[in-house]
Amino acid sequence: MKFLPYQFRETQSDFFGKKGISWHISCLVTKSENEEFDLQCYVHILENGSQGWFSVANIILHLLTNIKSTRPTLKEVFLKSDNAACYHCTNLLAFIQQNNGQFPIKVAEYNFSEAQSGKDLCDSKTGSCRMHIYKYANEGHDVLNPRSMKLALDSYGGVKGTQSCIVTVNADDEPKTKIRMPGISTYNNFNFENDGIIARKAYKVGEGHVIKTSTQYSETISVERVYKLEVSYL
């Protein structure tokens, strides 16, 4: 999603023609031994790069590494997102399946929201982060770039339960691949097994369609080729 740069004093002419700042919000929901849910959110502000599968793949891998460092006992995660093209695509799913064994935490499953039902925790947290930025800006600050956006999010102790960082993804490093998964848009539930992906149109409905790992393999989407993320915490 995009955040429009915001000035403390802004003329009408300055409002038009803005270029939004890309940011990606992830929410981690875990359950404690006391059966209580814990919510931790992560904000990745893109200083360079587009909102494509390549950026998402880098963010996911950085996210898993970060989570593993704070929750070393966590063994697997279940992903969920809306049906945006940067998520629900062949390249990202093939990247996860091919490199799952090298990830700090295994991705067990990926679920996509049904059409018109994509609102979730991340959207709620986005609103909280956005209001926190506006509060900072309305006290006499301009939020015009990723650096000032990061400063705004960290102001006054930051947003509760939220970490933020600035990331750079060079679009020129994006690998060119010709992997195809016929009918991928019709499936919303993907289970990552050792020998392939089990794709279903709905969660746990039917046996599912098996997509063999061997048919999706490509050297161009290895971790070494894809993970090029530069991270700054200021």
Describe this structure in words.
The chain is 26% helix and 26% strand. By secondary structure, it is of the alpha+beta class. The strands form two sheets. Strands 1-2-3-6-10 form a five-stranded mixed β-sheet, sandwiched between helices. Strand 2 and strand 3 form a beta hairpin. Helix 2 (53-70) runs parallel beside helix 3. The chain is globular and about 55 Å long.
Mean pLDDT across the residues is 92
Count every beta strand, where a strand is a DSSP E run of 2 or more residues: 10
Strand content of the residues, in percent?
Answer: 25-35%
Class inferred from helices and paired strands: alpha+beta
CA radius of gyration is 19 Å
Rounded to the nearest angstrom, the distance between the terminal CA atoms is 22 Å
Q: In DSSP terms, counting alpha (H) and pi (I) runs of 4 or more, how many helices?
A: 6
Helix fraction by DSSP (H/I, runs of at least 4): 25-40%
Shape: globular
Helix and strand succession? EHEEHEHEHHEEEEHE
Low confidence ranges: none
Largest sheet: number of strands, sense, barrel closure:
5 strands, mixed
- Main-sheet strand order equals 1-2-3-6-10
